[in-house]
Write a structure and sequence with these properties.
By secondary structure, the protein is an all-beta fold. It contains no helices and five strands. Strands 1-2-5 form a three-stranded antiparallel beta sheet, with no helix packed on it.
Length: about 100
């Protein structure tokens, strides 16, 4: 009888395309292929010199990194401007300035 696995879900904060709380899938912790990391990292080098040239990331089949559900949209935050909006011209003229 095949072993039934429960979904491994995690709550995260997303910023694109708009701020929201999302529910995402996570890698299976007892996966024999990726050891629970979610992918296999492979390093490669330049053929001519043998020097390190980069890293490839191959996602594992134990999870789907594109599986996500929006739980709740979050409001946009206004950036802080750092000045007092009630002062003349938006800046304080009180010492020290």
């Amino acid at each position: 009888m095949p072993r039934r696995t429960l979904p491994r879900l995690r709550i995260q904060r997303a910023t694109w395309p708009r701020p929201a709380l999302i529910l995402t899938d996570t890698p299976r912790p007892d996966c024999l292929l990726c050891d629970g990391v979610g992918g296999i990292e492979s390093f490669y080098g330049d053929y001519a010199t043998g020097e390190y040239a980069g890293t490839d990331w191959d996602p594992c089949t134990c999870w789907n990194e594109n599986r996500r559900w929006v739980l709740m949209p979050l409001p946009y935050r206004r950036p802080r401007t750092g000045h007092n909006p009630w002062a003349a011209n938006g800046y304080s003229d009180e010492p020290p300035f």
